[in-house]
Design goal:
Layout: H1 3-37, H2 49-60, E1 89-100, E2 111-121, E3 126-138, H3 141-146, E4 151-166, E5 173-194, E6 203-226, E7 237-247, E8 261-271
Antiparallel strand pairs: 1-2, 1-8, 2-3, 3-4, 4-5, 5-6, 6-7, 7-8
Length: 272
């Protein structure tokens, strides 16, 4: 073999080797690229705000059994009379008549009363009221004549603290117990008619009177009817009650004494 033939053969072999190496390198690069593109994805999770908002609304609506249900409006006849419904203050106002009882019958007879007060609700059916009451009773004719008058009256002013216990606080119609005590001022007055006022009518003028200050007690039972309100959630109640009222006025023979005063005020009005 000549030198020219040997050189040509050598160049051919070198060219074939270089071509093979380049082919193998390109194949490996392509396989690596495919491995990277087909590998595991590490993308961060996305928060779906719309789905989250819907879940929150669903839970607030009380449909999620895992969450407490929101407080809903009370159904008619199921009103919760107590501090749990947001009502912390209690009010009462009314009027009626008084029936005399006991040993003071010769010194007092029928009359009328007015009552107003306010206080607090402590729980579903327990309240404490501070009450102002005014009682105006007439005097029997024989007692008036003995006192040298033509007419007369007994006026009693009371300032008391009275716990109230609602027996059926969720019902539209309920009953309650009430009782308490406090300060009572009683005055007995004898009057005569004199002429005349600005319009020419005769007027009653006190000719004698006496009074006393003492403590007293009361205990009674009442009935209520809750008004429905616009949406069936009314808080106002109509009531009627009767209380036995005992007042420690001085005994007969003592200064300003006519014996213990016992009356039963029957009152109708509104409670809140």
């Amino acid at each position: 073999m000549s030198n020219r033939s040997l050189a040509a053969t050598t160049v051919s072999l070198v060219s074939l080797g270089v071509t093979a190496v380049l082919g193998i390198g390109m194949a490996q690069a392509q396989l690596a690229s495919q491995a990277i593109s087909n590998g595991p994805s590490f993308s961060s999770p996305r928060l779906n705000v719309a789905d989250e908002s819907s879940s929150i609304e669903f839970a607030l609506a009380g449909s999620n059994p895992g969450l407490p249900r929101p407080v809903s409006a009370a159904e008619p006849g199921q009103y919760d009379n107590g501090a749990g419904d947001g009502r912390h203050y209690a009010w009462v106002g009314g009027g009626g008549f008084n029936a005399p009882i006991g040993n003071d019958g010769p010194y007092i007879t029928w009359g009328g009363n007015l009552t107003a007060g306010g206080g607090l609700h402590f729980s579903r059916g327990v309240s404490l009221l501070g009450e102002f009451s005014f009682f105006d009773n007439k005097l029997p004719g024989a007692f008036v004549a003995a006192g040298g008058g033509q007419g007369g009256n007994t006026k009693i002013i009371a300032l008391t603290f009275d716990p109230t216990f609602d027996l059926f606080p969720k019902r539209t119609n309920s009953a309650y117990l009430v009782g308490g005590g406090g300060y009572y001022h009683k005055s007995t007055n004898f009057t005569v008619q004199q002429c005349c006022d600005f319009y020419g009518y005769p007027v009653n003028v006190n000719v004698s009177s006496f009074s006393s200050n003492q403590g007293g007690l009361n205990l009674g039972l009442g009935l209520t009817h809750r008004l429905g309100g616009v949406y069936g959630d009314g808080q106002m109640k109509l009531f009627g009650e009767a209380r036995y009222t005992w007042i420690g006025t001085p005994k007969i023979g003592e200064t300003n004494g006519l014996g213990r005063t016992e009356i039963i005020p029957v009152t109708f009005g509104v409670r809140w």
